[in-house]
Every structure is written in structure tokens, then in C-alpha cells.
Amino acid sequence: MMTALFVMAVTTAVVIGILDTEQLEYASLKNTIEYDRARYLAEAGVAHAMAMLEQDITWRQGVLATEYPAGSGETYSAEVADGPDATVIVTATGVAGRVTRRLQATIKHGG
User: Fold this and answer.
1) Domain spans of the chain?
2) Is residue 101 a contact partner of residue 45, using CB atoms and an 8 Å limit?
3) Is the peptide bond before 69 cis (omega within 30 degrees of 0)?
4) 69-103, pLDDT tens digit by residue?
5) 39, exposed or middle or buried, with CB in 10 Å at 0-12, 13-18, 19+?
6) Angstrom distance (rounded) from CA 109 to CA 81
7) Global pTM value
């Protein structure tokens, strides 16, 4: 009887340890995914702003918060401002879950 209780106690401790480790790995993976998705969304904001600038180099309105993909709750936006030496500075923000990433690009029109 004592041996059975000991085996059950050890088994329970091992199972709890494994479940705790798996939960930690899942949380870590979720954070990594959100971090990467926020970066990709910020890149989408830069690409969107660059597409608008290709159509009209004087455009400075920026990109309002855009949900992508639709219904996901994840967004990107971009601010566009004049920079030094005839450059344009695009600052894009991507938001995925609890993670926000910012990406800045300096663009020089022409040669």
C-alpha cells in the first residue's frame, strides 16, 4: 500500500512538472508569434505608405490604423513626414495581441 502511494505521488509530481513546462513553452511561443506578427504588420505599414508615395511624392497624410487580415484585431498604421536632405521619413506601427512594434524607413526620392 505504501509503495502504491509513493508511486502515485512521484507520478503526480512528474505529470505536474511536465504540464507546467508545456504551459510555459506555449506562452513563450504565443509571445514569439505576436512579436513576429507585429513586425510584419509594421512592414506592411511601410509598404502601404511607400505605395502611396509612389503615386504622389507630396502625399503626407499617413496611413490610418488598418486591420489586417480583416477581423483579426491586428493593425498597422504609418506616419509620413519630411526629413532632412529632401528625404521622407515613414514611421510604421504594427500591433498584434499585446505586442507593438515600430519600424522607421527613410526614403529618398529620385537619384
Assistant:
1) 2-108
2) no
3) yes
4) 999 999 999 999 999 988 999 999 999 999 999 99
5) middle
6) 13
7) 0.77
